[in-house]
C-alpha cells in the first residue's frame, strides 16, 4: 500500500490528520504539484483526474478523493470511529463534513485558485469574479458555524469527528488567500485552537 | 420523521431514488423553491443554509445534505448496501460518488445556476464566466466516465451503488442547461439508459 501525498496542500494533509487520529501509518510518496508531477503520464495512469492524495493498494486498486481514502480506512479499522457511532451521528457527521467542505473549504479554495498568481497555470481559466462571489459566502458560513459551536467542544458536541478535521484544514487554508476569521467569532477561534492543539494537527 | 422534499430539483430526487432502491417509505412535505418557501423563517429555523432535502427526526434532529440523509438510512437499514459491502468498495463508492457529484453534478449546476434567467434571484451574483469555465470541465469528465464504463454495467461493475444514483441525477439535470451527452460516448448513454429503466428512477 502506498499513499501519494502532497506536502502542504490541504487535501493530502486532511488524510494525514485522519490517519494520525486513527493511529494508522501508511508509506507516503511525495508528488510535487509545483513541479506538476501530478500531471505526469505515470501519475495520470493512476488517477486520470490528476489529484492528490491517491491511495494505491497492493493489488493495484486506486482510491482517490481524500474523504474516500478516509472511508476506506474507517471500514478497515473502525476504532476510533470518526464518521459517527450510530445512524444519527453518521448522518450528522456527513452533513457537517459536507457543509465544512462545500461552504468553507471549497469557498476558500475558490478565492485562492481564482486570484493567486501562483495558480494561473493550474486553474485555467482563472475567474476572479467567481473568487469575489465566494468571499461573502465564506464569511456567512463562518458566522453560522460560530452560532453552531456555541456551547460545543467539537462540531458534534463532545464527539470528535472527521467534520472537525475538514474544519481544521479549511481554517488553516484561509491563510493562503489571506482570509481571516473575524475577531468576534470567538467560538470558531476557540474551536480551531482546540483542533490545532491536538497532536494530529502536526501531521 | 418527515422529509422536506422539493419535487423536480436534483438533490431531493437523489434521496427519493435512494429510498426507492432501499424500499424505505418516508412521509414527504413539499417545499416550493419557486415560491421561495425554503427561505421562510420556519424552514430557515430547521436548516439555516435553506437547502432541501432536509430530514427531521421525531426528536427534532435535522439532517440535511442529500448524501448525509442517505448515509443515515444506510446505517439504519444496511440492506441492500448502496455505499459498498467491504472496505475497498466503501472507498471506491465514495470516490466515484464524489467525482460524479463534483465534476458532473456541480459542473452542470454551475452552468445552470450562473446562466439561466430563472436563477437570477436565487444565485446572487450570477457569474457567467464561471458557467463557461464549467462547460469544458463537464465534457472532459464525461469522456473520462465513458472510458471507465467500458465493459461495466454500473460504476462499480456489477454492483449498483449510490454513485450510480448521483450519476443518473446529474445526467438528467443536464437537460435544464441544455447540455447533451455526445453521441460518441456510447458507454455513458447505455449506462444512463440502464439507470433510467430501473423502477427507482420514477421516484
Q: What's the short version?
A:
Chain A has helices at residues 10-22, 41-46, 66-76, 87-113, 128-149, 162-173, 186-196, and strands spanning 2-5, 28-30, 54-56, 62-64. The first copy, chain A, is α+β, with helices and mostly antiparallel strands and 203 residues long. At the A-B interface, helix 3, helix 4 and helix 5 of A face helix 3, helix 4 and helix 5 of B.
Total beta strands of chain A: 4
* Mean pLDDT over the full residue set of chain A: 96
Dominant shape of chain A: globular
* Helix share, percent of chain A: 40-55%
Return Rg of chain A in Å.
Answer: 17 Å
Greatest interface and its residue counts?
Answer: A-B, 36 and 36 residues
**In sequence order, what are the helices and strands of chain A, one letter per element?**
EHEHEEHHHHH
Largest sheet of chain A: 4 strands, mixed
Classification by helices and strands of chain A: alpha+beta
Query: How many domains would you count in the coordinates of chain A?
Result: 2
Subunit arrangement of the protein: homodimer
Count of separate DSSP helical elements of chain A = 7
Low-confidence stretches of chain A: none
Amino acid at each position: 500500500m502506498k499513499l501519494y501525498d502532497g506536502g502542504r496542500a490541504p487535501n493530502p494533509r486532511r488524510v494525514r490528520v485522519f490517519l494520525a487520529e486513527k493511529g494508522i501509518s501508511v508509506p507516503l510518496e511525495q508528488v510535487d504539484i509545483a513541479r506538476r508531477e501530478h500531471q505526469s503520464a505515470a501519475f495520470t495512469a493512476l488517477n486520470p483526474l490528476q489529484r492528490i492524495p491517491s491511495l494505491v493498494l497492493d493489488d493495484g486498486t486506486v482510491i482517490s478523493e481524500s474523504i474516500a481514502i478516509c472511508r476506506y480506512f474507517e471500514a478497515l479499522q473502525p476504532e476510533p470511529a470518526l464518521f459517527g457511532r450510530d445512524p444519527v451521528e453518521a448522518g450528522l457527521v456527513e452533513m457537517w463534513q459536507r457543509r465544512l467542505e462545500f461552504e468553507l473549504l471549497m469557498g476558500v479554495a475558490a478565492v485562492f485558485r481564482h486570484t493567486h498568481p501562483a495558480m494561473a497555470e493550474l486553474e485555467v481559466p482563472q475567474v476572479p469574479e467567481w473568487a469575489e462571489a465566494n468571499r461573502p459566502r465564506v464569511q456567512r458560513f463562518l458566522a453560522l458555524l460560530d452560532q453552531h459551536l456555541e456551547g460545543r467542544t467539537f462540531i458534534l458536541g463532545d464527539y470528535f469527528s472527521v467534520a472537525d478535521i475538514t474544519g481544521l484544514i479549511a481554517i488553516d487554508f484561509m491563510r493562503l488567500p489571506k482570509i481571516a476569521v473575524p475577531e468576534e467569532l470567538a467560538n470558531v477561534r476557540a474551536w480551531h485552537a482546540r483542533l490545532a492543539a491536538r497532536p494530529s494537527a502536526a501531521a
